[in-house]
User: What shape does this take?
Amino acid sequence: MKRFCLLLGIVLVILGVAACGDDEEQGVSLQAAGQGATPTPTLTPEPATEPPGDGIRAELSGRLLYLKGRHFEMLDLESGEVTRFEGAEAYSSAVINADRTRGVFVAFPDFGVIDLETNEVRVLDNTGSTPNQLDISPDGRWMATSTGNITARLEVTDLDGGAVQSVASATRTWFAWTWTVDSRLVWADAQVPDEALIYDPAAGVSEPLGDALLFLTSFPNADTSPDGSRMIRVPVMMPGNGDDAAGCFDSYVGLIALPMAPADLDLSTETLWTESGLIASSPQWRDDHTVLFVRLGSGACGELRGDPVREILLYDVDGGGEPRLVAGPIGNTDDPNDEEQRFGRQFNHLYSPSPDGAYVAWVDGGIGAGETAIRVTHIETGETSTAVQFVESEAVGAGDFIDEYLIRQVVWLE
Assistant: This one.
C-alpha cells in the first residue's frame, strides 16, 4: 500500500485559500450557528439571445444547485423559482453527500453546510488554521477536514451536533482519505503511507485496515457506480509530474470491481478504452452501465497540444466501443478562483447528469465571453437549452461579474 497516500492525496484538490490565512493554531471550540436561506421568487433571467432547443425546458424537472460568484442558488426547473442561500460566502465548490441532502464547502476561514431539505446554511467554526481539504460522509452526518500548512490536523465534525473529533495531528506532513459506503474514514499520513487506518466516527477510534474488503466511495478521478458494484477511473497526468518519458501515461477509462482488498488500494484497473495522447479526467456515472467524463484534448506527458476541447463524452461500460460526444466545451477556463481545475484538472463540479440520466447540465461561458450560463443537453439527441444565464452588462464592471455572477458549480438534484 505504498502508493495509497499518493493516490488519495488528490481526491479533493487542495483549495487555494492559503494566502488568506496564517499558520497559527486557533485553539477555539467549534460552535454551529444556523441561518436560513432567503427564498427569492424571481424567475431565471432570460438569455440575451434565444438559444436553440428551448422547447426541452418544459420537459425538465428537479432542481439545479449552482454556485454563483460566492453564493449558492437553487433553481426549481418546473416553477422557475430561485432560492438564494445567504449567510456564508463560498470559497470552494460544495461536496454533496450520496443522497444529495447536504453539502459542505469552505467558508473561509471556516466551513459551511448546506441543508438541501430545509434550505438552510450553517457556518461551522474552523478549530485549526488554514483550511485545505474537506469531504462529507455518504450518510451526510460527518464532515472530514484537513487544516494547516505547518501543523496539519485531520478532524471529523458531527454535522448534527457540531462536536469535533481529532483523528490525527502532525507537523510537516499532510493527510489523505476517502469514505467507505457505511461512512467510515480510510486515511493515511504521508509520512507513514504503509500504515493506512480506518476511523469510525461513531466509535471515535482508528484501527488498522486488516484484510477486510472495502466498499469505497471516491478516489482520484474515480466514481462509484450507483449500485456500488464497481468504480470507474479516468486518471489525468499533471504536466511536469513525470520525471522522464517512462513516468508519463495516457488517460484511460478503467474499471475496478468492488469491494476491494486493502492490498488493491494502488487502483490497478481493467482498461476499457484509451487512445494515443489522451488527456481526460472527471468521470461521473450516468447510470449503472454508462459513464460521462471530460476529454481535455491530446498531447504528451499531460501537456496539451493545441487548444483544450473540454468535451463531455459518454462511454458504454458494458457495450464498449468508442466514446460519444455529448456536450461542451465546458466553460470557465479563465476563472482565477477555480482551484480544482487550475491545480487538479478536475471538472466534476462544472457538469452534472440529471437524476434520470436523460440530460446533463454543464457550465458554459466565462470571463472572456462576458456571459456565464448553465446549458442543459439531452444526452441522446444533443438538443440543448439554457437553464440559467447572466451577462456582464448586468454587473457593475468586470470585478463584480467575477465575484457575484460567474457560475462555478452545478449539481442536479431531485
Remarks:
- The first strand starts at residue 32 and ends at 36.
- The helical segments are 4-8, 339-344, 397-405.
